[in-house]
Amino acid sequence: MDGVDDPGAPRGNAVPRWREDFPVRWDDDNYMTRRELAKFLTLGSGLLASASLLVAFIGLTRQPPAAPVRRIAGVGGLAPGESLEFRYPTDDDPCIVVRDASGRFDAYSQVCTHLSCAVVHEPALRALACPCHKGLFATADGRPLAGPPTRRLPRIVLDRRGDDLFAIGIEV
Ligand code: FES
């Protein structure tokens, strides 16, 4: 462009005309304004609150898995005063069912609520005894009677169907 005068070209130390029209410096352009920061924080907080509400909603509406139904034994296979060990709800969960003198059945988790040793039936005491630290639980309701345990044994809910006894749930 020989001979043509560029109107935007600097003359000497003069500031180019385009800089007068666009006075933003690139260094300053990388900074966030207070308004942008406030917007970002508000949106971020809103998203976090929404996510928390969603997680709470899912937790409240989710149904626990249904307890399985498992046959324990035939009613005639357990005489009054006897007990029988079984597994419920999985093969890794030892339980015990006790038939008292009146013929009533009570079943509990066999895991001691103190330090998880297996309790055994003591017919003479009408109790389930823990050999580890001499803990004792009532066979009638699973409450602790002696020793260090302070919590009752989880009860296995039973259902008698004809001549068979079934485990149908757990009451913790
Ligand atoms: S583990 Fe049963 S009394 Fe301690």
Question: Can you put this structure into words, describing what you see?
Answer:
With 172 residues, the protein is α+β, with helices and mostly antiparallel strands. It has two domains: 17-61; 70-171, Rieske [2Fe-2S] iron-sulphur domain (Rieske Iron-sulfur Protein), CATH 2.102.10. It contains three helices and ten strands, in the order αααββββββββββ. The strands form two sheets. It has a six-stranded antiparallel beta sheet with strand order 1-10-9-4-3-2, with no helix packed on it. Strands 5-6-7-8 form a four-stranded antiparallel beta sheet, with no helix packed on it. The chain starts with 16 loop residues before the first helix and ends with a strand. The model has no long low-confidence stretch (mean pLDDT 89). Bound molecules: FE2/S2 (inorganic) cluster.
